[in-house]
Amino acid sequence: MLARRLIERKRDGGRIDPGEWRALITAYTAGQLADHQMAALLMAVYLNGLDPEEIAALTSAMLHSGAVFDPTPMLGPRVDKHSTGGVGDKVSLVLAPLVASVGVAVPMISGRGLGHTGGTLDKLEAIPGFRTDLSLAQARHQLEQIGCVMIGQTAEIAPADRRMYALRDATATVESLPLIAASIMSKKLAEGLDGLVLDVKHGSGALISDVARGLELAECMVGLGRAHGMPVVALLTAMDQPLGRACGNALETEEAIHALTGEGPPDLMELTIALGIEMLLLAGVAATPAAARAQLEAALASGAAARKFQEVIDAQGGNPGVVDDPAVLPQAAECELFVAPRSGVVARVEPRPIGRGVTALGGGRATADAAIDPSVGFVIGAKVGDWVDGGEPLATIFARDRAGVNEGRAVLRRAIVVGDDAPPPRPLISHRVTGAGIERYDPAG
Ligand code: URA
Q: How far apart are the C-alpha atoms of 419 and 3, rounded to whole Å?
């Protein structure tokens, strides 16, 4: 009865007190609040929002729904990054081993695909044998041994987020500022970090479309970090076209492997290095952005970053041979080129239909517990502003069967527009948000 009264209050625009949030999340985690009631509450939050005190209370209740990594001082600094989600965003797969390879511990807790956006766990699980469901003890041991672990929310760590995340995905309640903030920060606060870097995406392919709301979300999460004594730096980044070229789980994992030796597409490398610089500065292992950049570039060039990824894969049951031979990843039965319908300038490569297209091909979930096909998706070489000749290949479609190829072609026909001119380019990284406030991003630091 309590839950019904609180759902009703939120539905009618009222507020829920911290103690009531704690009771709701405790009951939900214990199985005493049904999914349909939580779904109704999530929709009420989606429609009516939460005030700052409610966001803090929800985050804290979700954090305390499970256990936390305790700080292990002998391990040195512990830092992580999280993205609010985009299309083609495989940065975590590159960044976690890269930063760990320069001596910073990275205990990364990620999510699965959400809405039209992909999820790090699904990309990692494209690697044959890779397990993301480690226990807290296993994760802690791996962190101590190799300085990096990449796992999902479990029954022990952030269990409330695990269930709410899946429920949001199935109930169209993903694109909500308070729910995104609480979801991300409850997981990240459970990692016992010395610092957190956030990639807050805005644009047509992000969960938040405009810069102003993106900045609001960034400030909200920086504030939640501050309240728990954890320094947070957020970069505001554009998601108007897919990041890199690959969209789809195994395809993105392969692109991430190339990026680990510095061979990734320019936008993916630029963002990975920018976020890595912030991580090294927060960890205190580099004094300046230039010094941090040099350390990261050296780890890519020497193969140290790729070797660290191999160690992580090996430790988590996957086939480490994938780093030397990405062909061990699941391969799609059918692949076909998609060519430019005319000569001109690439005016749009719309990420949202492409993300939904990956799901339609079988690479994302229509329901919370659906299985996915890791092999399907797109590799899109065309970027906004490129000149293309009619008939020139713009992309490759990877599908399970001919019907999938046809579906993929229909998706790309809608998503990629070749015209007479392109919109002026927006910077990939526009703002930097810290506890000191908002500043325009300066790549030179
Ligand atoms: N990433 C998360 O972990 N949660 C969200 O709600 C969005 C992105």
A: 53
Pocket probe for ligand 1: among 165, 171, 221, the residue whose CB has the most ligand atoms within 8 Å is 165
Token pair recorded at residue 383: 């970027």
Q: pLDDT by residue (tens digit) across 412-438?
A: 999 999 999 999 989 999 999 999 999
- For 378-401, the pLDDT digits (tens) are 999 999 999 999 999 999 999 999
Closest CA to 130 of 122, 142, 138, 139: 122
Does the annotation count 10 as an active-site position? no
Q: Would you call 187 a catalytic residue per the annotation?
A: yes
Q: What is the CATH number of the domain that holds 99?
A: 3.40.1030.10
196 lies in the same domain as 110: yes
What residue's CA is closest to ligand 1, atom 8? 84
Q: Is the pTM of this model over 0.85?
A: yes
- Residue 222 in domain: yes
Q: How many residues does the chain have?
A: 445
- Give kind and range of the element (H or E) at residue 237: strand 232-238
Establish whether 168 is a catalytic residue. Answer: yes
Q: Is 279 in the pocket of ligand 1 (CB under 6 A)?
A: no
Contact 277, 296 (CB under 8 A): yes
Write the residue with the smallest CA distance to atom 2 of ligand 1.
Answer: 184
